[in-house]
Amino acid sequence: MKPTTATFFDLVRSQIPLVEARMRSAPDRHHPQLSLAIDHLLASGGKRLRPTLTLLTARMLGTDEDKAIGLAAAIEMLHTATLVHDDLIDGALLRRGIPTLNAQWSPAATVLTGDFLFARAAELASQADSVRVMRAFAQTLMTIVNGEINQLFVSRGQVSREDYYRRIYAKTASLFAVAAEAGALLGHAGEEAVAAMRRFGHEVGMAFQIVDDVLDFTSEEMRLGKPVGSDLRQGLFTLPALCYLEQNPEDRDISSLLNGRAGDPEIVGRVVRAVKGSGAVEAALAEARAYVARAQAALASMPDNVYRQSLSELAEYLVIRNL
Amino acid sequence: MKPTTATFFDLVRSQIPLVEARMRSAPDRHHPQLSLAIDHLLASGGKRLRPTLTLLTARMLGTDEDKAIGLAAAIEMLHTATLVHDDLIDGALLRRGIPTLNAQWSPAATVLTGDFLFARAAELASQADSVRVMRAFAQTLMTIVNGEINQLFVSRGQVSREDYYRRIYAKTASLFAVAAEAGALLGHAGEEAVAAMRRFGHEVGMAFQIVDDVLDFTSEEMRLGKPVGSDLRQGLFTLPALCYLEQNPEDRDISSLLNGRAGDPEIVGRVVRAVKGSGAVEAALAEARAYVARAQAALASMPDNVYRQSLSELAEYLVIRNL
User: Fold this and answer.
1) Residue B181 contacts by C-beta under 8 Å, 6 or more apart in sequence?
2) pTM
3) In A, which residues are within 8 Å of B123 by CB distance?
4) How near does any CA of chain B get to the CA of A155, in Å?
């Protein structure tokens, strides 16, 4: 069985097209180029894990379907908006094999499209009729952007697990956390349940990003859609490299990358092979599995229904996909 | 008496520093470079008309002072965020005589700072505890950004009053409208009063932008902080030029600017002199005064207190400043 046919996907398969339709709605109120941009961004696909998380949480706790669709659309729109500006900043030309907006449009049009999508995400979120949801959205965007600014001003040669965890929280887990939290708020869950679901989203998001970072070492270029080891090429030390460094503190290639030769392709190639040949990948995956286990523990107090089961499967899926 | 000492400024003079302090607050939650950016942006001053509008409206209708300060800070933050991306897109190096962020920082840092300020504006707006206020913020940002995208894709050689009014609504009046509307919502005004104050903000914003566009013809370079006629240089036909065109439909310089020679400095110089020497400036100002009169009419049903009087003065001030 391919992982993409997991039960949790079946449960929301009928709803994701509704989420995408909501994201495309209200085109009469904006320039046709913006509609084209939204269509283009949606065409690049993706697993829609974040809106799925929102939908499953909202359905587990029982809520208005229409509001849940709107909120899921808001989450995916916020995610999409951050990607538009990310790709512009990184000068990325492809995402999931499809040209980025900035590859086709001027920087001006790309900046403005991202801005519009941020605003549209907030407008969609307002359909949930909750100031708290909207505030959580705003704070999540602050966390994400602040994380990226930290990256811009980071000093080379410093790597620590603490920095790594802080970075992947800002980059990924913060949005997973709000996706689940907002779903719970929509379901009028009590404070404890809201906190538990936020924790679930957080842990799941951390696991997701760790696996992403592992795949950057272990996957094939074709599948990844970018060169293997591209994090190291950009001078970014992710968990597998950190685990390897802990096991091999004297490794001279790592020292070179940390001190002045960041991104050197030849050294990167050697380090990628060394990391893959060591226990570092397995150590990183063990971390990811620990996050998944904590996520699943956070579900314990939730109503025991098919949606809770699906959330548990979703967490499990994150550490088996493409490995 | 200098216009800047008008009574309405006295009334809020004690509060604007509180608004600015609120804009600077919570620096522990973000990168020090963001605090520097916010300080820099606030140092460039400005008349703070938008937060003044919010504060006067909220006080006129009677509301929680602390929430009014937060909402005024949110309005000015939203305005500031749009300027950061505007200046980046235009490649502007100075604003109000002070270097723009993009003149000092990389495009990446400038894009991210703008994004952070958008999110911070939404977080500040959430202090008003009103989904409707937050939705109005989001929709205003969509209007502003959509207006800028229209400008990017506009076809040359087409000018009409209708386009002009639509453009200055998106660019300026939409934010003035929400500044007053949000103040009224905070004051728990009835639907009619909220609509009247939104109308007040709208009319005042239109008048403000028309006067700005007149100053681009009539002011001196020193005072303006940019070359006279800079709109025409950028191929932008504002109300004074449109009035002149209506009075002189056969003018060959205007035809040249509209057809292929947009921004030609020599022709722009001749057109600026022609517009100033015609009745076009007076015609444009008469329009601005009509907007002010309609704004003042919108105040008729408001509580008759010193704040209403101040709002009326603020509207009046817009058409006499710097002329």
Assistant:
1) B136, B194, B197, B198, B201
2) 0.94
3) 135, 138-139, 142
4) 13
What would the pLDDT profile of B100-133 be if each residue is shown by its tens digit? 898 888 999 999 999 999 999 999 999 999 999 9
- The answer to whether the Cβ–Cβ distance between B134 and A113 falls below 8 Å is no
Pick the CATH number of A3-318 from 1.10.600.10, 2.40.10.120, 3.20.20.60, 3.40.710.10: 1.10.600.10
Contact B149 A112 (CB under 8 A): yes
Select from A112, A133, A155 the residue whose CB has the most chain B CBs within 10 Å, as the one to mutate to test that interface. A112
d(C-alpha A282, C-alpha A289), whole Å: 10
Q: Are residues A30 and B116, on separate chains, in Cβ contact within 8 Å?
A: no
DSSP string across B223-272:
HHTS-TTHHHHTT---HHHHHHHHH-TT-HHHHHHHTT-TT-HHHHHHHH
Weakly modelled stretches of chain A, pLDDT under 70:
1-6, 155-158, 221-222, 224-225, 322-323
| Cβ within 8 Å, pair B120-A138 | yes
Residue whose entry in the numeric block shows the structure tokens 């929400």: B178
Residues of B in contact with A142 (CB under 8 A): 29-30, 116, 119-120, 123
CB distance B29 to A142 below 8 Å: yes
* Alpha-carbon gap: A310 to the closest alpha carbon of chain B (Å): 31
* pLDDT single digits (tens) A247-294: 998 999 988 888 878 788 899 999 999 999 999 999 999 999 999 999
Is B4's pLDDT higher than 50? no
B131-152 vs B65-90: helix crossing angle, rounded to 10:
20
Residue A95: in which H helix or E strand, if any? strand A94-95
Task: Record the tokens describing residue A228, joined without a space.
Answer: 């293997």
Interface of A with B in 237-296 (CB under 8 A): none
Query: What number is the average pLDDT over the span B32-50?
Result: 89
Which residue in A has a C-alpha nearest to residue B109's C-alpha?
A149
